[in-house]
Design a protein that fits this description.
693 residues, alpha/beta, Rossmann fold, nine-stranded mixed sheet, 19 helices, SAM-dependent_MTases_sf, transferase
Length: 693
């Protein structure tokens, strides 16, 4: 039996609905939204003494159920189908004497003005507004005008809808321009399998007298999990808020099916500000053998550690889920703009929402564990926030790492999941002769991070590799006392040039930084300073190198501007390119030839390459090979970074044994008595995985 219309326009045809209800018979037809789900919303807006009009009633049981539970009895139902009106009159005549069914077109109703307190529409607007053709919109305008006419001031038009964007926009625009208050409720869905995946909404349009002039629009949305409505500023934002909830429903539907390899991510926003409060990633591990207690868990990422490979990459999260031994793990990242009341507070806040992301087959009343590293939510202290004209908004924050270590980080908020610069903070040491605190004195807070920078520690693995690349320099090993001229393009927090300056006592380091704000950041927050061996030039690296190359070309063969090492660690401001470091102009052939010109024949050019586009990466490598005869590469494990070591002469090639010997000799010289050295930093290890391209 084919009950579907031949075209969407037939939904507005009395002939179609007569045929539909004759063929369907006595079985009630509910578009969507069962009475138990709609009841909490209807109870707010329908009073027992209200006179209620139901437009396009069909043979839905909604009116009968409202009548039977005592919500309201004075209900008038209208429809254009004679067949269904006869059917419903017969069904309710003896049981519900105060309720009536009338054959009537809602586009031309016989009721007097201001006759009803409530007009209820369940799916009728959705059935009529099937497209945005001129004739359809004119019909809807007529429908709205008739509803407005028969409603009293203060009356409510309740429209149950799937809230397709064009339907919602039309209804909200029409009634808000008439001066009505518009509120959209999301109906709490049944936990059983529903006919419709998309959520059901109820538009509540409350009639007010139209005020001459431009009265402010009152638009609100009331999500299913809260009673308090949230005000929105424009129709577009209201439509977008509804669309977000529809996407979430589709996501939950997807997650209710057997696990798949793809990771799903979503933001949960703060109810007051609308800003992201939690970022969730749902990770399935089908390879984990199922047991009673390993179906589902929630992992809270400690504050400030969301950028780490294990938590911040898809592969890392997959490894985390597998090692944790759960078939579905939801990782939860906490946002720096938000305040959290510890693990217990987060668990109370998220428990209801994360259960909507539970895997199929989760046993009833299964307790879902909330876990974290060390059992707490970590420590994050935002030290400074500002905006640079070149780099955009940025923050300086101190975060707690593993154990008792704290780290200071520079984050550009345009790319908030990437740590731009990082330094370890020193634990405070008592001054010579300083007495220990008395037991009764107040102890410093264990969560208060220290303030001094540990300049001996290179946090970034790619910085360690770049320093190790100095072993490739020609001639004798670049021992700390060897006179070196080093050019670093890209300052950031200054960790790389600081390390070279402090550990290579005869090195003269020139740093080029395009953003003057970064020089202030490095100086104020990362312990950076200038002296006669360390000078910062605020300039575009492209212009600075081009100028040097021009000077060298004029002064050859006795050019004073030649460098032993040139290092590029500069990020791209253009996030649309598949290469975030360096900007594309820095690896174009004419510019690379200028770099080569400013480099000593036995020198080394070190480039931090971060490129996710495989084709673009191959192009960059090909260009580098055209300019530099000798090219080494060192891939940084668990990161996208690849460090490229380029030498202008093929005679600089060294076998692995010689390279390891030079690395061990250099490290031995750098480990001077009384000077701290990070024991995990082994130069030879940094060069072990190096390969010639």
């Amino acid at each position: 039996m084919d009950l579907l219309p031949r075209s969407p326009g037939e939904f507005g045809s009395a002939r179609y609905w007569d045929r539909f209800f004759r063929q369907r018979g006595q079985r009630p037809f509910e578009w969507y939204g069962a009475f138990p789900e709609l009841c909490p919303v209807l109870h707010k807006y329908v009073r027992p003494r209200d006179k209620v009009l139901v437009v396009g009633c069909g043979n839905s049981e909604l009116s009968e159920q409202m009548y039977d539970v005592g919500m309201c009895e004075d209900i008038v139902n209208i429809d254009v189908s004679d067949a269904v009106i006869r059917q419903m009159q017969e069904r309710s005549r003896s049981k519900r004497p105060k309720m009536s069914y009338l054959l009537m077109d809602m586009l031309q109703m016989d009721f007097p003005d201001a006759h009803f307190q409530v007009v209820l529409d369940k799916g009728t607007l959705d059935a009529i507004l099937t497209d945005e053709e001129e004739a359809t919109l004119a019909k809807v305008d007529k429908m709205f005008a008739e509803i407005s006419r028969v409603l009293q001031v203060g009356g409510r038009y309740l429209c149950v809808s799937l809230a397709q964007a064009h339907v919602l926009k039309k209804a909200v625009e029409y009634f808000s321009q008439e001066g009505w208050v518009v509120r959209v409720h999301q109906v709490a869905g049944s936990r059983d399998k529903q006919q419709f995946v998309l959520p059901v909404f109820v538009y509540v349009m409350t009639k007010f007298r139209k005020i001459p002039g431009s009265a402010p629009q009152i638009l609100e949305i009331c999500p299913e999990e809260q009673d308090k409505p949230m005000r929105v500023e424009t129709v577009e934002r209201l439509v977008a808020a509804v669309k977000d909830r529809q996407h979430y429903a589709l996501l939950c539907s997807q997650l209710s099916k057997p696990p798949c390899g793809e990771q799903v991510s979503l933001d949960l926003c703060d109810k007051e500000s609308g800003r992201p409060r939690y970022t969730l990633h749902v990770v399935d591990s089908p390879s984990v053998k199922p047991s009673r207690d390993n179906h589902f868990a929630i992992f809270i990422i400690p504050q400030g550690r969301e950028t780490e490979w294990l938590f911040g990459t898809e592969e890392g999260r997959r490894q985390l889920a597998t090692s944790a031994g759960f078939r579905r793990l939801v990782t939860v990242a906490l946002h720096r703009e938000q305040h959290y009341e510890g693990m217990a507070g987060i668990q109370a806040e998220l428990s209801g929402k994360v259960m909507e992301l539970a895997p199929p087959g989760l046993p009833a009343r299964q307790q879902v564990p909330f876990v974290s590293v060390g059992g707490d939510i970590g420590v994050r202290t935002v030290r400074h926030r500002d905006t640079s004209t070149l780099s955009g908004e940025y923050v300086i924050e101190d975060v707690k790492g593993d154990g008792t270590c704290y780290f200071r980080r520079l984050i550009f908020l345009r790319n908030r999941n990437v740590v731009q610069s990082e330094a370890r903070l020193l634990a405070p040491m008592p001054l010579p002769g300083q007495k220990k605190r008395r037991k009764d004195k107040k102890k410093p807070s264990p969560t208060e991070p220290p303030a001094d920078i540990d300049k001996s520690y290179l946090c970034c693995e790619h910085h360690k590799a770049m320093v190790a690349g100095l072993c490739l320099l020609g001639g004798p090993n670049p021992l700390p006392g060897t006179l070196l001229a080093v050019l670093v393009v890209g300052l950031g927090g200054g960790s790389l040039p600081l390390f070279i300056h402090d550990y290579f006592s005869q090195a003269h380091v020139a740093v080029v930084e395009i953003d003057p704000s970064m020089l202030e950041v490095a100086t104020r927050w990362f312990g950076f300073s200038q002296d006669d061996r360390m000078q910062v030039h605020v300039s575009d690296g492209l212009d600075y190198v081009a100028k040097l190359a021009a000077e060298v070309s004029v002064l050859l063969p006795a050019a004073p501007a030649l460098y032993d090492a040139i290092m590029f660690d500069v990020d791209s401001k253009d996030l649309t390119v598949g290469m975030s470091c360096p900007p594309p102009a820095f690896v174009e052939k004419p510019f690379l030839q200028k770099v080569k010109t400013t480099l000593k024949p036995e020198g080394v050019f070190v480039l931090n390459l971060v490129c996710r586009d495989a084709q673009l990466k191959e192009s960059v490598l090909a260009t580098l090979r055209e300019v530099f005869p000798l090219l080494y590469a060192r891939r940084i494990e668990e990161e996208v970074n690849e460090i490229l070591f380029c030498q202008p002469s093929p005679e600089g090639r060294r076998d692995p044994t010689e390279l390891e010997a030079r690395a061990r000799a250099l490290e031995g010289a750098l480990r001077q008595p009384g000077r701290p050295w990070d024991s995990s930093y082994v130069l030879a290890d940094m060069l072990q995985a190096i390969k010639i391209l």
